Amino acid sequence: MVKVAVLGASGGVGQPLSLLLKLNTMISELALYDIKLAEGVATDLSHINTNADCVGYSTDDIGQALKGAAVVVIPAGVPRRPGITRDDLFKLNAGIVKNLVSNVAKHCPNARLLIISNPVNSLIPVAVETLKRCGVFQAGNVMGVTTLDLVRAETFLAEYLNTHEAKEIGGIAGERTYDKSKMYKYVGVIGGHSGETIVPLVFNHMMTRTLEKTNKYDEFINRVQYGGDEVVKAKAKDGSGSATLSMALAGSKFVNEVLQSVHRRDEHRKRVNRTSDRKNVTISSTYVYLPGLSNGKEVQEKLKNLAGIRDASVRCEYFALPVVLEDGRVTRVDKSILDSISPKEKEMVKIAIQELEKNVNKGKDFVSGQTKL
Description:
Layout: E1 2-7, H1 14-22, E2 27-33, H2 38-46, E3 53-57, H3 62-66, E4 71-74, H4 86-107, E5 112-115, H5 120-134, E6 142-144, H6 147-168, E7 187-191, E8 198-202, H7 205-213, H8 217-225, H9 227-235, H10 245-272, E9 281-289, H11 296-307, E10 318-326, E11 329-333, H12 343-368
Parallel strand pairs: 1-2, 1-4, 2-3, 4-5, 5-6
Antiparallel strand pairs: 7-8, 9-10, 10-11
Helix pairs in contact: 1-10, 4-5, 5-12, 6-8, 11-12
């Protein structure tokens, strides 16, 4: 059991995320930090009969909140609302994330750092460059949480296929051939975490043909890529912002995968008492800094070759792909997902890489002082 700190615990994502983490049996202490309301949220959660201790911390206590944390999750920042673009979000959230990451570097430099705050494509480079300047950067510790894209892909793929199946068998109400909770076998998502940088990959060719036959393939891709806009529009009547509950669920799923990796390490150490025999685990995609990983440069070249990009200035430093975890840290990227993608998916990868270059440079320029907000 480990200590997990949530920075931005009182926000629209932070509160339901903290609730879900309170239920996780691998967490011994849940440190909830925010500029306001954190103590109240922690007290509320502390009444739940699970064993994780909950403590709230305000601005002056961030050092205490982070001290001893094995995992730090950052959902802090301003959410999307109608009329707010991801560029607007960057201007609002880059400074927040830089400040929080600087504190992580100071108080728990070895923690696994999971960033939910948007726009992830640019804020992960902000975090990486900040940690580099603090002299504590470890590529395997920094992960952008893109799990919501996968959750949406699984949900939407099942919905489209079930609609088709229902029509085929006469439209029986409530008939479900495909279980949404098991669609991870058939679909993955790589790339980035906004618009056309999100690349859904359907593994089952029969499913792809079904989507194409029913003229739903492009619609499926668009819904996964712009699912966030769908939520913003639906909530616009009340001006209540973007996806919070689904993002909290996705965030908690990813934290759980990281914690399972830590837990496997500890259990294996008890059995054999040799850290060299730690077990690895492959998890769903996360947005990472490729050059710092053991096979990262190889993956950079593979992505560029796959997309037919010959421009040497395109570096492809950041990309979301399945990764291998050891002790909750990324050790390498599992590039096998790229081995059998279709020509259309290759074109999506190319578009994603080109857009990500701009997103990444924006984050790097902010830390280097070239961006004026």
